[in-house]
């Protein structure tokens, strides 16, 4: 198993007026990054168990729980 021990970039999409924690040099606004992105990208090889995204469950009691989805089974 490969374990991620560092984070290179956090992409933030602002949908509300809630103040968020921000780390300069790591965090970036979605709308800024999209404007800078090239439309020509080379494919990146990934393993089936590499993390793809975290989806937070909707619960009526307690705190939401993060569910890690891996790249296996998704067409990217």
UniProtKB/TrEMBL annotation:
Keyword field contains tRNA processing: no
A biological process from GO: acetyl-CoA biosynthetic process
Top-rank taxon: Bacteria
Pfam families per the UniProt record, alphabetical: AMP-binding
Signal peptide positions (record): none
Recorded GO CC terms: cytosol
Keywords, sorted A to Z: Acetylation
Entry keyword annotation includes Acetylation: yes
An example molecular function term from Gene Ontology annotations: acetate-CoA ligase activity
Domain AMP-dependent synthetase/ligase as annotated: residue spans: 12-74
PANTHER family: ACETYL-COENZYME A SYNTHETASE (PTHR24095)
Protein name: AMP-binding protein
Organism: Escherichia marmotae
